[in-house]
Write a structure and sequence with these properties.
Elements: H1 2-30, E1 40-45, E2 49-51, E3 55-64, E4 69-76, E5 82-85, E6 96-103, E7 110-120, E8 134-144, E9 151-156, E10 162-164, E11 168-177, E12 183-191, E13 193-197, H2 199-205, E14 211-219, E15 224-234, E16 240-250, E17 259-268, E18 274-288, E19 291-294, H3 301-306, E20 313-318, E21 321-323, E22 330-339, E23 342-351, E24 356-363
Parallel strand pairs: 2-8, 10-16
Antiparallel strand pairs: 1-3, 3-6, 4-7, 5-6, 7-8, 9-11, 11-14, 12-15, 13-14, 15-16, 17-18, 17-24, 18-19, 19-20, 20-21, 21-22, 22-23, 23-24
Length: about 375
């Protein structure tokens, strides 16, 4: 009887042990071990500013990487620069340091960001598959171009700085130096006219740091600020430098339009106030054969309706047509009727603030 009790107690103890292990297994199944923390990093840079071609060293201290470092990746602004990574000093370790050396690009200026990512080798605790964690650290280097921009001059032969529609003048582009090495490309644009040049002159300058290009500029049909605009890009830094030789392009008025005019206007202000048959006196003063200074762009609206000072400006008159001036606050367009010395000019106008009107000018 006593032996039977001992046997029963042994069976109960074994059952308890089995139950305990079963509970432990169930708990571990329901609560798998968590992954280890991602690497903890600290970054320092040898320089905060640099120019193209400089080498900046970045030191990354791995304070703790319980999952063990397996790889290092580096990215830079626009993927520029040359990157050298000293992986061997940290791969397979939980602590330590490594360096990244970046040769700064020549063809970038501004904030240059370098991002370094350290990746560990830990696995997913449930599946056993590789499931690494990573940490990224970044630093910004203030980067500037190493060399000065191309040095060149654009000159027009016309002495008085004015061309009438259809007239031509010679131009010369003299490239004095390209400090970074050589010319990559040259673009020549006519503003308010057309340019003519020999492409062979441009081709001969590619890769060189000095040279001369000649050509002609022919004025177009509208009165405007014209000239020859030249863009030169260097090979190494890819910097584009623009220089312009200015000239006034003039389409002359049919006759001299200068004088004092009676203005009769209908319009509406920027705030919606309408007015009709508003009379004022304005003056046109000749600047050149196609441009006239106007003492009141609003033809009386500003001083009489809005109670503010006159706004002086200009009128471009090509033949008998008033043409808008690009970029001006006031835009005028219209037609002049000429009968001997008698001149009547009908104008539609608007400004950037919303004032607008139609005006008839009658020369007195």
């Amino acid at each position: 009887m006593k032996a039977k009790n001992i046997y029963s107690k042994a069976l109960l103890g074994l059952s308890a042990i089995i139950l305990l292990f079963s509970c432990v297994d169930d708990f571990e199944d329901a609560n798998p071990a968590r992954q280890l923390d991602a690497p903890f990093l600290k970054l320092t840079a040898s320089d905060e500013s640099a120019v193209g071609g400089d080498v900046v060293d970045f030191t990354v201290s791995v304070i703790d990487a319980p999952g063990v470092i397996s790889d290092v990746e580096v990215s830079t602004t626009n993927d520029l620069g040359t990157v050298v990574i000293n992986k061997s000093s940290i791969v397979g370790k939980e602590k330590g340091s490594f360096t990244v050396s970046v040769t700064m690009p020549f063809n970038y200026s501004g904030d240059f960001e370098v991002t370094i990512k350290a990746i560990d080798s830990q696995k997913d605790t449930e599946t056993g598959e590789v499931s690494p964690k990573s940490t990224s650290v970044s630093a910004v280097v203030e980067l500037d171009y190493k060399f000065a921009e191309p040095d060149f001059v654009v000159a027009l032969a016309d002495a008085d700085g004015l061309l009438y529609s259809g007239e031509s003048t010679d131009f010369t582009i003299t490239v004095n130096s390209v400090p970074s090495g050589g010319v990559a490309s040259i673009s020549i644009v006519g503003v308010g006219g057309v340019v003519d040049f020999d492409q062979a002159d441009i081709d001969a300058l590619i890769g060189k740091s000095t040279g001369v290009i000649t050509g002609t500029f022919t004025a177009g049909g509208n009165t405007t600020d014209g000239g020859v605009s030249v863009f030169i890009k260097d090979e190494l830094q890819e910097v584009i430098t623009n220089k312009v030789a200015d000239i006034d392009v003039v389409c002359p008025a049919e006759i001299d339009m200068a004088g004092t005019y009676r203005a009769i206007s209908h319009g509406v202000t920027r705030t919606g106030v309408e007015y009709h048959a508003l009379e004022a006196t304005v003056t046109l003063t000749k600047t050149n054969d196609g441009q006239y200074a106007l003492d009141d762009n609003s033809f009386g609206e500003y001083p009489q309706i809005r109670g503010v000072a006159k706004s002086a400006g200009s009128l471009n008159i090509c033949g008998s047509t008033v043409t808008p001036i690009s970029g001006a606050f006031f835009q005028h367009k219209g037609t002049a009727t000429i009968d001997g010395a008698d001149v009547t000019i009908d104008i539609e106008w608007v400004n950037s603030a919303g004032d607008q009107g139609v005006t008839r000018l009658i020369r007195q």
